[in-house]
Amino acid sequence: MDRMSDQPARWSQATVYPDMWADPDDDPRNRDGASPDGELATLLDFLADYRTTLRMKCEGLDAEQLARRSVPPSTMSLLGLLRHLVEVERDWRNWISDGDPLPKLYGERDADFDGAVADQAEVDAAYAALEREQAATDAALAEHPDLGERVGKDGIAVRELMVHRIEEYARHCGHADLLRERIDGRVGQ
User: Fold this and answer.
1) pLDDT tens profile 47-85
2) How far is it, in rounded angstroms, from Cα 91 to Cα 97?
3) pTM for this prediction
4) Buried b vs exposed e over 110-133: b needs ≥16 C-beta within 10 Å?
5) Sign (positive or negative) of CA dihedral 113, 114, 115, 119
6) N or C: which end of the chain has fewer CB within 10 A?
7) How far apart are CA 186 and CA 56, in angstroms?
8) Do residues 89 and 137 touch, judged by C-beta distance below 8 A?
């Protein structure tokens, strides 16, 4: 006897490889040609792919689905992850700068997750803020192409900052995998 479940069935849009998110020809992260030359170009390529992955994990969902919490007592949601990465991008710029730190956008401790509510205006604002903060951090780091250069008050190496950025996005893409599967069962790379 089959048991009823409120859990969505696992699925993927991919048809060639059913364990993938998208077929290789439809995946915006797949590029023809050689891999990037040099360490900086490679780091930037990995960062771009993880940023794209996070957006892919959020696409096609409405405001309620994006704001849906994972499992109590966690406050994590896809919208919360987007808002969290807005704050993280801003924090990285603070690490680069010698000046006064930029203020938090969503408030203190967990406000990025707690304020992630099912409102389309909130979703639109989070996407716009993420795009803006990513561009600002990218521009600030572009002024420091030497990966060995130390920047900011703490003298952090640009290489360490780049690797930390990749690690942060990769970690949260893992969270996004689980959140998305819980929402509608979609799985894949």
Assistant:
1) 999 999 999 999 999 999 999 998 778 889 999 999 999
2) 10
3) 0.85
4) ebbbebbeeeeebbeebbebbeeb
5) positive
6) N
7) 11
8) yes
Q: How many CB atoms lie within 10 A of CB 164?
A: 14
Q: What would the two tokens of residue 31 be? A: 């590029």
DSSP 156-171: EEHHHHHHHHHHHHHH
The span from the CA of 156 to the CA of 95, in Å, is 7
The CA distance from 186 to 189, in Å, is 10
Q: Helix-strand-coil percent breakdown of the chain, rounded to 5?
A: 55, 5, 45
Length of the chain: 189
Helix axes 120-142, 158-184, angle to 10 degrees: 160
Would you say 7 and 181 are in contact if contact means Cβ atoms under 8 Å apart?
no
**Residue 17 corresponds to which tokens in the numbers above?**
């490889």
Q: Work out whether the CA dihedral 49, 62, 123, 113 comes out positive or negative.
A: negative
Tell me the chain's radius of gyration from C-alpha atoms: 18
Distant-in-sequence, close-in-space partners of 186: CB < 8 Å, separation ≥ 6: 10, 11, 12, 13, 21, 180
Can you give the three-state secondary structure of 20-32, one letter per residue?
Answer: CCCCHHHCCCCCC
